[in-house]
Every structure is written in structure tokens, then in C-alpha cells.
Input
Amino acid sequence: MSSAASNVAAAGSGVRGDSGPGRRPPASPGGPPHSARVVRSASGAISVAAALVIWLALLGPVITLLMHISPGAARTALTSPGALEPLVVSVESGAVTLAVLLVLGTPLAWLLARGRLPFPRVWEAGLLLVLLLPPLVIGLLLVFMVGPFTPVGHGLEALHLSASNTFLALVIAQVYESAPYYVLGAQAAIGSVDPRLEQQAALLGDRPRRVLRRVTLPLAGPGLAMALAVAWARAMGAFGAVIIVAYHPYGLPLQIWTTLQETGLDSALPFAVVLLVVALPLPLAAYVWSARAQRRRRG
Output
């Protein structure tokens, strides 16, 4: 064979050498092997089943509540004279609590997120400390801080106010129990906004307030709403601090407690359902809004 023919044969064997030694056979055009698809399907089914079990376990108390409540008992409990007054008290105090958190907590969260405060870790540690304190301990400490025999209590008394067994005391207890949830959540929401966007808006001539209103708040809005909704649920369910500093006027948690003590479990369950109906829709709506906003950003 001539040298040219040998070269052509060698080139042809190199092109057809897919099955030669040291070469991987071509992938099957039909996709992954059947065994791999079976393993993937089984793994997905197991994951879905495990998630369903966990979901049912977490919602077990709510499911149990709905299974054990009697429509007749609920109607009797909720239609008795003055039965819904605690609902009004809880909604009003919760609304005032959210207003306080928005006015005072949002600037603090912005300063923490942008590193404008000295010793930011000390501030964050303080918020975490309040978050981790048992609510009963918060109530005890509030007695020594704003009680009637403290300097703050004397100052409130001069204004014809009191932070003990009053609506103001209820709001103070709810603020202390819910503030860390809002401030830390709002800090995370504002921190997720790229500071370069704010800098670009400032370079284009926007004043700081305009940057905050047109850039920071719209981008951080879903996260802020989620933090505020969690704080709402926490305020509506506040009990530990409330029972010490604000036993009167009754909110829904104290109504559930007193009804349980006076007339038993069956009479307390309807008020538990009312508390869930009032406290949960706002966090669920905020979660849906936040999830949709994240999908729009990714898309």
C-alpha cells in the first residue's frame, strides 16, 4: 500500500474510532437509562410523601382544632353578650402596634441594613436578646420598667396614663413581643436591595427621600410586608407579657385563657378559631405577594 493510501486509511480509522480503546461510546439518543429514570421517579415520590407527612404534622394542631370544634358550641360561645369585645380590643391594639413598628422600627431597620449605626452588632444582639427572652420574662421586666412605681410610671401618671392593666399597657406588651420580628425581617428586606441602585438614582439627581420612596421601598416592599405580617400575627397572639402587665382589657389570647379556666375546653375552642381567622390571612397574603415578586425578578 502506498504512503498516501496509508495516510487516508489512518485518517479514516481516526474518524471512525469512536469505539476504539480509550474512547467513550456515544450517548444513547433515547436519554438516560431506564434504571436512572426509575430511581429519579422513586426519589421524587419519596420526597413528595415526606413533605406531605411533615406538612400534615405541622398543621396537625389546626386540623385537630377543626375536627373537635362543635358548631353549636361555637354559635353559643360567639353569640353570648360581650363575646366579641376581645376581638375588637385585639384588632385595635394590633393596628396601633403595627403603626408603632412602622414609624419606629422601619428607620432602625434601614440604619442597620445600611450600616449607619455605630456598633451594629451590639444593636443586632439587643434585638436577638429581646427575641429570645421568654414572653413571661418580658412581662416581668416591663413591670420594673414602666410599672406604676417606676420613674416612667410616674411620668405616665402625670399625663393621666398608666402602663398597667390599660389599653396602653396592652400595646406596650405587644410591641415588645413583636418588634424584633419586624425589625430583623425589615433589615433583611432592605439589605437585599442593591445599594448601587440607590447610588445610581442619587447620581441622576434624586434626593435621599425620593430614592427611598422610588427605589428602596418598592424593591424591599414584599419583604417589609412579610415582616410586618409576621409581627401582626405575633402581636395578635401575644400572651406571656400581656397576662402580667395588661390583664385588662381582655384581648383574644386572654379571652381564650379565661374561658378555658372558667367553662372548659369546648367553650375556648371557638375563640381560638377566631384568633386564627384574624391573625393568619395577613401573613398568607404577604407570603403570596413576596413569592410573586421574587418570580417576577427572576423572570
Observations:
- Residues 85-113 form the longest helix (29 residues).
